[in-house]
Amino acid sequence: MAGANEWSNWAGNQTAKAAKVVTPRSASEVVEILRTADDDGMTVKAVGSGHSFTPAAVTDGILVKPDGLTRLKQIDREAGLVTVESGMPLHQLNALLAENGMALTNMGDIQVQTVAGAIGTGTHGTGRVSGSIAAQVAALELVLANGEIVICSPTENAELFQAARLGVGAIGYVTAVTFRTEPSFLLTAREEPMKLDAVLDGFDDLADGNEHFEFYWFPYTTSTNIKRNNRSSGPAAPLSGFRHWVDDEFLSNSVFGAAQRLARTAPRLTRTVSKVSGSALSARTYTDRSDKVFTSPRRVKFVEMEYAVPRTAFVAAFREVTQLINNSTWNVNFPIEVRVVPGDDLWLSTAHGRDTAYIACHMYQGTRFEEYFKAVEQVLVGHEGRPHWGKMHTRDAEYLGKAYPRFEDFLGVRDRVDPKRLFANEYTRRVFGD
C-alpha cells in the first residue's frame, strides 16, 4: 500500500514520493504553499488526474493535489464564457456546460483529466477547424512563484497567457480557467471498418470531408476502424443502453482487456489477438450530445507515445511506421490511433504553425514498449515530429528548441516569472533546459 506522500499516475509508469502533499481550497492557500516552499528550498508540482505518461508532475518536494479546487466561479451564457477552478475534471465541466445549454467546441477522447492538466499538456481532439482544449481558453488565473495572483488573457499579460495556457506546469500554478464555449450541439457519429490502403489513399478527402475524423489501425493487419463525427440538427438518437454496454464496455474494455492480458502472457498470440480485435467492432451510427460522442471510457490501462507530424508528411510517415511494425518482432498489442487538427498559434502547441496529424502508439500496461517506441520515434523525428508533452518521448530542449519557433519566447517568460525554478523537476529540466 502506498504511503501518504506517495503518488503514481493512472498507468503506473510514473511514481513520486513527495516531502509533503497538500490540497489547497483557494488561490490564497496556493500563495501560502508557494511561499513555504520557497522558504524551505523545495519545489512545487501540481498533479491532476494522473493521465500523463511523462514525469511532468513527479516531485520530491511539495505535491499539490487538485481535489480542493473544483468549483464553478462564474458563467456568462450570453458571452459564452465559463470560469471554473483548475482541479475540476472535464466530465464535471461537460455536465455543467450541458445544464446551461453550452459546450466546448472540441475535446479529446477521454474526460477524466482536470481542466488545468488537460490544457497544460496540450490535450487535443481531432477536427477540421478545431483542435486542442487549450486553444479554447479565454483567460487564466494563476499564482506565480513570487506569490502574486495574476489574471492573464490575450489582452492582459498577453505573453504570460501564451506561455501559461500550455505551459507543462513550468510557468505558475493555475487556479482557474475561463473557457470560450458555444451553444450545445449534437454530433452524428459514423464508425465503420475500412481497409488501411483505402484510408491512406483517401486520407485528405476523409479529413477534409468531415468535421472530426480519426482512425485506428490494428498492427499486423490491413484493418482499421474509422470514426467520422459531424454536426447534426437532430433529433438525438443515442445508442441504446444495451448497445453502449456491448460496444463500449464489454467489447472495448472487458473483452479487449482480457485479450491484452492473454497477449501479455503469451506474446506469440499477439498477431492473432490483433486480427480478432480488428474484426470485432461492427459499423454503427448514432447521434448524441457532443461530449458524449467525443469521449468514451478507457478502462484498459496502457502506456502511450504520440507524435505530431505535418499533415503533408503523414501518409509517408505512417506507411514507414506500419512497415516497421509488420517487419518487427515487438508483438505490438494495441492499435495505433490517428487524428488531425488545424495549425494554431499557441507557443508550445504541437500544431503550432502547421496543419497536423497525430500518430499515437500504445502498449498494454506491463508489456515491453521501449524498443518499439524508440524505433517509431526515430521515424517520426525524421518527419519533423513534435512529441505530445504528456506522453512518452526522449526529446530534449536542444531538439524542441528547433521544433518550436516560439520556444525561446516561452523560456523568456519562464525566466522572468520563475527565475529560481520553483516549478521545475527532472522532466522540465530535460525539455526546457535549466
What's the helix and strand layout?
Layout: E1 6-8, E2 15-17, E3 20-22, H1 27-40, E4 44-46, E5 62-64, E6 72-76, E7 81-85, H2 90-99, E8 102-103, H3 115-120, E9 137-143, E10 149-152, H4 158-164, E11 173-180, E12 182-183, E13 186-195, H5 196-201, H6 203-208, E14 212-217, E15 223-232, H7 241-265, H8 270-280, E16 284-289, H9 290-294, E17 302-310, H10 314-326, E18 336-341, E19 356-364, H11 370-381, E20 386-387, H12 397-403, H13 407-417, H14 426-432
Helix pairs in contact: 4-13, 7-8, 10-11, 12-14
Structural class: alpha+beta
Distance between the termini: 35 Å
The global form is globular
Spans of at least 5 consecutive residues with low confidence? none
SS summary, helix count: 14
- What average pLDDT do the residues reach? 93
Helical amount among residues, as a percent range? 25-40%
The portion of residues forming beta strands comes to: 15-25%
Reported for the largest beta sheet, the result is: 8 strands, antiparallel
Strand neighbour order, sheet with most strands = 16-13-15-14-18-19-17-20
Radius of gyration: 21 Å
User: In total, how many beta strands?
Assistant: 20
